[in-house]
Structure formats: C-alpha cells, structure tokens
Amino acid sequence: MDDLPLLSDDHTLLRSQVTHVKALLRVLVDGHFESKALQAELIQQVDLLGNQLIEHFEFEESTAFPLLVKRFATFSSQFQTFHSEHIQILKAFETFRSDLMLETPQLMPIDLLSKAALFESAFKRHATAETQLFDEMAKQLGHLR
C-alpha cells in the first residue's frame, strides 16, 4: 500500500489543527480579545477539525484498514483497537465542542480546558500509535522515506 506515508502526513496535519484549536481556546479563556468574535472563530475552527476527523477516520475504517489487514493480518487486533479509539476520540471531541457552544457567560473555562485537554491527549496518543504502526508497515514494504 503506497499510501502509508500519506496517512502519517494526514496525522501531522490533524495534529496542527488540534494545536491551532487549543491555542485559540487558550486565548479565549485568558480573555485577551473580544470573546464573542473569538468564540465564533473558535467554533468555526472546531467544526472544521470535527469534519476533518470524521473524514480521516471514515477513510481509515472503510478503505485503509481493510486493505492493511489483508496485507498485514498479524496487526488486525491493533486495527480493531484503533477503530474503538476513533469512537472514543469523537466522543471526547463532541463533549468539548458541546461545552464550547454554550453562551459566553455560561462557559466554564476550567471545564472547557479540561475537556479540550482530554480530547487532545486521546487524539495525540492515538495518532502517534497509528503513525508508528504505519511506519513499521512501510519499512516492511520498503516504502519508508
């Protein structure tokens, strides 16, 4: 499968969007800018990230994982774990997103930061594990850059 490096690159792009969202959240919570406009921008970026996550996970689950399991049957349990992690990551994301949608006076900064941190850590652990596995598979195929 020649797309293994592309899957790893996609993780890098998603990580950068997660970092961007987290930085915007920090600015919102710190109160350095007009909160209504910043919250609107943050919601827009969070929605973009959510769409990117869903598209990425759907591609992996419907296309990449089935092809990889055929080629690397010994890793099938790891792909099942990754699928379960996708569900948990999306749940953590939605929990964070739903709090963000509250009106500004109802936002609880500590709760919002905590939920964002849970989502971020779950995503980063997952992306790191997938990337490591994809790199190992690419080595076996002789495609590592």
Distance between the termini: 14 Å
Integer average pLDDT: 88
Query: Which range does the strand content fall in?
Result: under 5%
Structural class: mainly alpha
Question: How many strand units?
Answer: 0
C-alpha-based Rg, rounded = 17 Å
- The helix content, as a percent range, equals over 70%
Would you list the SSEs in sequence order as H and E?
Answer: HHHH
Shape: elongated
Count of discrete domains = 1
Sheet with most strands: none
Uncertain ranges: none
Output the number of helix runs.
4
Oligomer: single chain
Give an overview in words.
The chain is mostly helical and 145 residues long. The protein has one domain (4-141). Helix content is 84%, strand content 0%. It is built from 4 helices and no strands. Helix 1 (4-30) runs antiparallel to helix 2, helix 1 packs antiparallel against helix 4 (109-141) and helix 2 (35-71) packs antiparallel against helix 3. The chain is elongated, with a radius of gyration of 17 Å. The model has no long low-confidence stretch (mean pLDDT 88).
